[in-house]
Design a protein that fits this description.
The structure is a homodimer. By secondary structure, chain A is mainly alpha-helical. Chain A has a single domain, classed as Arc Repressor Mutant, subunit A, CATH 1.10.10. Chain A is built from six helices and two strands; from the N terminus they run αααββααα. In chain A, a hairpin with a 5-residue loop joins strand 1 and strand 2. In chain A, helix 1 crosses helix 3. Chain A is elongated and about 60 Å long. In chain A, about 30% of the residues are buried. At the A-B interface, helix 1, helix 5 and helix 6 of A face helix 1, helix 5 and helix 6 of B. Chain A binds a DNA duplex through helix 3.
Chain lengths: ~140, ~140
DNA sequence: TTATTTCATATTAACTTAGTAGGTTTTATG
DNA sequence: CATAAAACCTACTAAGTTAATATGAAATAA
């Protein structure tokens, strides 16, 4: 019941892009340095974000990445689901494929539904803009 | 971000024990048959529940297991944490051991805290008695 | 005494995680 | 035009986890 590094790094990567939006594209190398994450691994993660249109890449020297949308347009859920896959706590909740034959008889499904709703209520309401705001507040605290 | 079979089976096992409390101890073999789960695997899971004092075992013929407490005394969280380990969505939230060095600078921790609270608010308020109640309602629906 | 049950430990195949490795393509700049 | 800096692409891998199976020992009711 853990969010893996892929999801966690994707979130920090997007947050890094949102904060370092000075005009020039942001290089993987710099994100890797700032976040203390393997650059090669970040390449793979950002590739997913790129293909989904979450970021735009500029190739060649002085290249890098930029967000395609305003930070408030990305929810944490969008980023996590893209990189982690479904956030449903059990597979039988993920649609027709994994439907459980005991579904209509098994009461635990009600627990899983409530848990699923609780998770969604957090990840689908918090946006990248919220993370930026919290990050700014943290930096302020730190500098006082 | 999934609950594994251990946790899911433990919950169904405890629910089965709560429902089949006719006085005689309940055998693993019968739970396995009713739930469609490998008996040998259930043995391992119930061993954990036994050592934690959640169930009491009676050995020998006509032996089996019984709950030690009233169903409303067990929360889903107690059962899941015992079998799954911590339900925190990220390791850096699990106490001093896994503390993240970036904690005080990284805004994502706030998201994880909110997610953790949301998960707790479900699993720590739903009891085995609730599951029994829901199960009874399901059986009624089915028989109408 | 026997059969039935729990109890204990070891093993395993398949899968996932968290990267590393090595190279190709694009393109700004000198 | 040559070079270097960046993104891009695919394959590989060590370690860990999951979801069991396998084998047998210990306890005990009949």
């Amino acid at each position: 019941m853990k969010i893996s590094t892929k999801g966690r790094y994707a979130l920090r990567l997007m947050l890094d892009l949102a904060i370092n939006n000075s005009g020039e594209p942001v290089r993987i190398k710099d994100i890797a340095r700032r976040q203390g994450i393997s650059g090669k691994y970040l390449e793979q993660i950002i590739s997913t974000l790129n293909k989904a249109g979450f970021v735009k890449s500029i190739r060649g020297p002085q290249g890098g990445y930029r967000l395609t949308k305003d930070p408030k347009e990305y929810t944490a859920g969008m980023i996590l689901r893209l990189t982690e896959g479904s956030l449903a706590p059990v597979a039988c909740m993920e649609g027709d494929e994994n439907e459980c034959l005991r579904e209509c008889e098994c009461a635990t499904i009600i627990l899983w539904e409530k848990l699923d709703e609780a998770i969604k209520s957090v990840v689908d309401t918090i946006t990248l803009a919220d993370l930026v705001e919290w990050q700014m507040a943290k930096v302020n605290d730190y500098n006082i």
